[in-house]
């Protein structure tokens, strides 16, 4: 089941973040660290109603922030369409639950959410060194459209888009 996150979910979300940071750092991906993302980022997402969690048998397995907020850096890129888009941010799945389709369920939910809101366009980005998410977005049918400097990181972020069939 996918539902909107609530404040009671923050403890598990932060546990997943800590696991994810350790794994990312194990392959020299420093997209996330002790400075980002923080609990306050997720609290803000919850407050706005933009954070969704996936649960199975009462266990929170992953989450994604889905909204219309595009980083300013997106303005410099050559997107295919000039129309409203949903943007997927801060997505992660519990370390012991990866490779079981949880991420695919979350990204498919983003697609359904877009269509329910008469939006056919999705955007996202991830650090160029985040091999797993780059592969995931490509596998999910997203097209690489460019790269940007972001969050003061040394390497660039790859930006992706997907146009949905209505």
From TrEMBL:
Among Pfam families, the record links this protein to: Acetyltransf_1
The organism's place on the tree of life at top rank: Bacteria
Q: Which SUPFAM superfamilies match?
A: Acyl-CoA N-acyltransferases (Nat)
Where would I find the N-acetyltransferase domain in this sequence? Answer: 1-165
Signal peptide span: none
Q: What InterPro entries would the database entry show?
A: Acyl_CoA_acyltransferase, GNAT_dom
Q: What is this protein called?
A: GNAT family N-acetyltransferase
